[in-house]
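Input sequence (207 aa), recorded before submission:
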Amino acid sequence: MQQPEPEETPAINRVAILLFDGVELLDFAGPFEVFSAARPSPDSPNRLMEVFTVAEQDDPIICRNGLVVIPSYSLESCPQADILVIPGGQGTRTAIHNQRLIAWICQRAGQVSLTTSVCTGSFLLAKAGLLAGKAVTTHWGSIDRLRMDFPELDVRENLRWVDEGEIITSAGVSAGIDMALHVLDRLYGPAVAAATARGIEYDYWKS
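Predicted structure, token format:
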């Protein structure tokens, strides 16, 4: 009897998710879940992505709601990645003044194939000079502030995400799930995105 051919698994994409004190939990946990759940097919044991977190130091991070998270890497020890995720939250109001963190974002964005933000993470990308002249979005409650602080941006509202090629920004909190599914759709096709959405029982996904 002919043996089935082994499954051809696409190259693994490595995803680095930045953490900082005051980060919004779902901003990073949503994309983390989506990317880590992605498979070539629903019954495959093989992952399509390796996902890890990174923070300025190795110290535990306190999320906006008080949850404590230990980052996988510090800025110095962070390995090369293919995708960079910058979440938001109240902590961005402090992080935006952290020159070391902003410089790292700018540097890493130049080394990855895709940079993304969730919620007010767009403010950090803007501060790093990565969004000038681009169409972007953020949490609905921060739309006006983003326009005021960075008038050079084309700020869009009432969108779950805005794809500008090498940079994708998304609206707030749960919109990071939609953004991550869009990334799967873009990289691996609609079948993988739809299967991942079904696997995590996210019924709101529309490509």
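Checked by second reader. The two ends are 40 Å apart (CA to CA).
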